[in-house]
Amino acid sequence: MSARYDRAITVFSPDGHLFQVEYAQEAVKKGSTAIGIRGKDIVVLGVEKKAVAKLQEDRTVRKIALLDEHVSMAFAGLTADARILINRARVECQSHRLTVEDPVSLEYITRHIAQLKQKYTQSNGRRPFGLSTLIVGFDIDGSPHLYQTDPAGTYHEWKANAIGRSAKTVREYLEKHYTEEAVNTDKSTVKLALRALMEVVQSGAKNVEFAVMKRGERLKMLEPEELEKYIAEIEKEREEEAEKKKAQKGVAAKQS
Question: How far apart are CA 150 and CA 237, in angstroms?
Fold first, then answer.
């Protein structure tokens, strides 16, 4: 059935599908896992860092980009498509500053990106953008936000979310462990993001990349040494939890 309707992007199948958009969503699922969490006074982005060639400069392989002083974005999917989208979003951020003399709100720039994506699902001779984005930052009133967009051009605001390969596993972990208490401090928010990403990524700072933005401050990429400290703490907590469970099982076995 799909072979007759997936040639043109503007043609619906009889059961209401736009197959090219769905194929773009499949491209996202093959991309590196990315996670975003909105804390009380901080927003965190984390991405799976794939191994680079021995002679390649790893600074040129980035999945986290700054759109404006107060807005950052992580993506999963086609990197070349992301580069175009990032450049257009940056131009819009600066254009807004010149026109309105205020920085963009998070919802405004998210809506702009989503509208651009939607435009590419409704025109002949084009194809959809093969990426999903997580957009984080602070509005002018200091409130933190996290938005997600997909290839269809839809967007939603989240407290925490994941995109890319294994996003479902990470999202299930977040649904289980995300609480207001868990994101009450900057440190606990970063640790929650790391714990969630480590569900699907091998442990180690070389396998992940994290960026944090605190209220009133610029985006900061976490150095491998900082990540190793967080990972060591998480591993220690996991060991303690395992020992507690083991001790509880032993007590239960004796009582029975």
Answer: 35
